[in-house]
Amino acid sequence: MKILAIADVEERLLWEGFNAKRFADIDLVLAAGDLDPDYLEFIVTMLNKPVLYVHGNHDGGYGRKEPGGCICIDDALYVYQGLRIVGLPGSRRYREGRYMYTEKQMARQIRRLQPQIRLLGGFDILLTHAPQRGVGDLDDLPHQGFACFGSLVERWHPYYHIHGHVHANYIADFRRERELPSGTRVVNAYGYTTLECPPVPHLSYGWKQSWVNQRTLKKSDGLGAQEEGLLGAGTSYRL
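Now predict its structure.
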């Protein structure tokens, strides 16, 4: 499965200069936050592939306009063609804001997800806006990562941790990708990048998958009317 991962800036070649042939082999889009909802709507329309997203710390305005046709996986788990994806939004709290959290608050959100993760026997991709603490983050509070992300990854060993938030122009030695001792590849999706996902152990998790996905779709802002509609959202997906 080939994944297009995006975050933080709207790339011209994915919008004004879009060329469908260039991205014809993409199977899934994962958006790691701080992106214009119109941009996500454009991508899901032009690629005709599922777009799963988490909110970034600058996405407070999404309440007025969620990106149509996309699936929000904030504090949720979603399974697509056997790929188990956990989503966690926002950044460290450095001021008042809708998608900003203390370390304690984020750890609590992870604990609430653990029963679903255990039900599916783990997960394959962690999609967040912020990075892990000490893995591609910065020392200033607004761009520090969450230590609890590291604990989550160490516990379950997903294939990928995909994040955004730390822009390429913030640091001189920007690194797109790192590999942890556990084998997890940490990818900063700033702008865009493409990833190949290894074959999944199961194409379907049966009723467990259906239950988890329906919970996520019900929480997903702006998707209530699409549970039987656009891009197979909801029960019309062949999951």
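The chain is about 20% helix and 20% strand.
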